[in-house]
Write a structure and sequence with these properties.
Elements lengths: L8 E6 L3 H12 L4 E4 L17 E2 L6 H4 L14 E2 L5 H9 L9 H19 L4 E3 L1 H4 E4 L2 E4 L5 E3 L2 H15 L3 E3 L6 E5 L2 E7 L2 E10 L8 H7 L8 E2 L8 H8 L4 E2 L5 E7 L4 H4 L19 E3 L18 H9 L6 E5 L19 E3 L2 H6 L6 H14 L35 E13 L2 E2 L6 E3 L5 E7 L16 H22 L1
Parallel strand pairs: 1-2, 1-12, 2-9, 4-7, 12-22, 13-19
Antiparallel strand pairs: 3-8, 5-8, 6-7, 10-11, 11-12, 14-20, 15-19, 16-17, 17-19, 18-19, 21-22
Helix pairs in contact: 1-6, 1-13, 3-4, 4-13
Length: 498
């Protein structure tokens, strides 16, 4: 019988997204030989990474922490840029805001404490960053003011991250097999010693599961998240079917985290299923619709259902995407008037953005299929009457320009909807990744319910439960992938040596 010591590779990584690549790079850094097996073909490899905007949230003290990470440290805008600082205490409070009263989890503390180091490490692997001027800053008094604690994205967004990590992985000697799904784990004497695939059995001294959650599996979404979630648009890869989770659970891994939670976001109602596969990678993000804070969102009953100005969109879009799925028909309309049209993100001017437009509100409402027109007109009139015009509008801060007397307030950035032309964008909920997973130890090893570790098995990325609960502050997901991917790669390399 072949033993772990007879394996051809030290480490096999299942998946090829940001977390998988981080694990592979970390294991290679520690001298391990690494094989990566990826279910998708070369064109759709990389998990959800290429579908993201590449933003990463991490602790930093100021401009001096950020400039060394930039692809263009001579950008002429930098002297006029106020990045501010993002402290560990701010990160903690931001995460606690989505915990529904839960204390900070162990995984969340790890994410906070290692976020800055993880980003700096990623930069040493050849990944470069750029300030998110178009989405995270507003120009005010001649300066670019960043808001919401989120400042940097990888160069060329998620597609650039996937490309840079793949280049770094292959440059360091890693090997990858495409069109090669892991169909099972090879276990001998209680030790995981490889994976089964249609291309054959690949034996290793350690296996890292980094193949995502179950967001692409309609049946599991309905089972764990709730009725109607089979109708959600899948923002990313069609391949995250929960296979890795099932493999780990079948071996006795402890289910960990909130299986009823997921990262959701408002999406164009006519978004194609499974990540807009007919579009170039760089365009896939454009189906998101996250400028609701500048207008109103109405459901089919003509009613508002969220406080659109509760907080910066970084902190609300994951929750509001879920809220849309709870509305009749899983649909809503984002309504804007001409005062804010110039502030809408490029996704609203994308060639395939779906919207209706009219010079009058009555004309606009006539074009909204399926909405209670009379109720919508009353909702907008009541909102307009409640706007506190005495407070200046300022999109660079939570400006306190809210409403008075409404049962459901708009807390910030409230402006009357009265200046034509008017636009309405139909939206639904899109799912990016799920929150339930397995528990891992400090080295990324997968744990059983009794606290013991399954020998030879590690996990990272969406596979790790306990990181997020009822939402998350934007940019945390990719950072989590790097933090726990690096831990799992180091752990698997050490386990392979041991």
């Amino acid at each position: 019988m072949q033993r772990p010591g007879d394996a051809r590779w030290d480490v096999v990584v299942v998946g090829s997204g940001n977390a998988a690549m981080s694990a592979g790079l970390a294991a290679l850094e520690r001298g391990a030989s690494v094989l990566m097996v990826e279910k998708a073909g070369r064109d759709l490899a990389g998990g959800n990474t290429a579908y993201t905007a590449g933003a990463m949230r991490f602790v930093y003290a100021g401009n001096d922490d950020l400039v060394p990470l930039l692809v263009d440290p001579e950008d002429p805008r930098l002297p006029r840029t106020d990045f501010g600082a993002y402290t560990a205490q701010q990160f903690e409070q931001d995460l606690l805001g989505f915990n529904d009263g839960r204390p900070l989890s162990r995984e969340q503390r790890i994410l906070i404490d290692e976020s800055g180091a993880a980003l700096r490490w990623l930069a040493t692997q050849g990944v470069k960053f750029e300030p998110i001027y178009s989405r995270q800053s507003f120009e005010k008094d001649g300066r670019f003011v960043f808001w919401g604690g989120l400042t940097l994205a990888t160069h060329d967004e998620g597609f650039g991250l996937a490309r840079a990590e793949l280049e770094a992985f292959t440059r360091a000697g890693g090997e990858i097999r495409y069109g090669c799904p892991a169909t099972g784990l090879i276990v001998e004497d209680g030790h995981v010693v490889g994976v089964e695939t249609p291309q054959g059995a690949f034996r290793a001294k350690a296996v890292v599961l980094a193949c995502g959650g179950f967001e692409s599996n309609a049946a599991l979404r309905t089972r764990f998240i709730g009725e109607g979630w089979d109708k959600a648009r899948v923002r990313g890869t069609p391949h995250n079917q929960g296979d890795g989770l099932q493999m780990a659970l079948d071996l006795g891994a402890k289910a960990h985290g909130f299986y009823g939670g997921c990262h959701a976001t408002p999406m164009d109602l006519h978004t194609p299923d499974y990540g807009n596969l007919d579009l170039p990678h760089g365009e896939r993000k454009h189906y998101r619709k996250i400028c609701y804070f500048l207008g109103l969102m109405l459901n089919a009953n003509g009613a508002r259902f969220v406080d659109e100005g509760k907080n910066f969109r970084n902190y609300t879009y994951a929750q509001f995407g879920r809220s849309i799925m709870e509305q009749p028909g899983h649909v809503a309309w984002q309504i804007f008037d001409a005062k804010v049209d110039h502030l809408l993100y490029s996704e609203y001017r994308f060639h395939d953005a779906h919207f209706v437009e009219a010079d009058t509100l009555d004309g606009l409402l006539d074009k909204l299929e399926g909405i209670d027109r009379a109720a919508a007109k009353r909702t907008i009139a009541d909102f307009n009457a409640a706007v506190d015009e005495s407070v200046p509008f300022d999109p660079t801060v939570k400006d306190g320009r809210g409403t008075k007397g409404l049962a459901l307030p708009k807390s910030n950035w409230a402006q009357t909807i009265e200046t034509g032309p008017f636009k309405a964008y139909p939206v639904t909920g899109g799912i990016t990744f799920t929150y339930g997973g397995v528990e891992v130890g400090d080295d990324g090893g997968v744990k059983r319910a009794d606290g013991s570790t399954i020998p030879g098995l590690y996990a990272c990325g969406e596979m790790v439960g306990g990181v997020f609960f009822n939402g998350y502050p934007g940019g945390s997901g990719l950072t989590s992938g790097v933090v726990f991917g690096r831990r799992a790669g180091y752990g698997a390399a050490a386990g392979a040596r041991g």
